[in-house]
Protein: Monofunctional biosynthetic peptidoglycan transglycosylase
Organism: Thiothrix fructosivorans
Amino acid sequence: MLLALVVWLLIFRWLPVPTSAFMLRQDVVAIFSAETPFVRHDWVSLEEIPRHMQLAVIASEDQRFAEHWGIDMVATEAAIRAEMRGRGKGGGSTITQQLVKNLFLWEGRSYVRKGLEWGIAGVMEIFWSKERILEVYLNTAQFGKADYGVGAASANLLHKSVGKLGAADAALLAAVLPAPSKYSAVKPSGYVRARQGRILRQMRSIGGAAYLQRLD
C-alpha cells in the first residue's frame, strides 16, 4: 500500500489530478439517483488562481499551513480539549489532511480513518511541495453540491472565470468549505456572510499575500 501511494504521489507530482474518492463516489450515486447531480470539475493551475483565493482557503482552513508537516498539533490538541469539554465540532484538520480525505478516504469520523489520514498526510508532505498540496486542494475541494475545485465553483456558482475572482468572491467560496452541501455561495445565509467577513479579516491578519511567499 505504501509503495502504491508513493508511486501515485510521484506520478501526480506535476500532472493534473483527474478525480478524487469523493468525486467518484458522487458520480456513482448520481447514476442511480436523479436527486444527486453529476460532478462538475475543471482543473486550473495554481498560476491561474488569484493569490487572494489561495490565501482565503488558508485563512479559513489552516492558518499554520506554512509551518506544519501535515499535522497541526496545536490545532489538534485544541480540538481534543474541546471534545473532552463536550464542545467538540471536529476541526483541527490541516489542508493536507483534508486533501488526503478528499483524494483517498471516506466521510465520517473514526479512529481508523483518522489514523490513515495522519499517515498519508505525512507521506504527502515528503513528496509534494506546499504549493502542490495547495494547488490540488483548490482543484478537488467541494464548493457546491456538484462543484469540485475553484474552476467549476467560480464558473457555475459565481458565473465568472477564476482569474476574475475578487477577494470578496474568494472569501465567499472559502466560507462554504466546512459544509458545501449545507451552505451556499449562490444564496449565502447570514452565517456564511459572517464567515466571509471573518475570512477577509483573517487574510489580512496572517500577512496577506506575503504569507504565500512562506510556502516556497
Observations:
- The chain is about 55% helix and 0% strand.
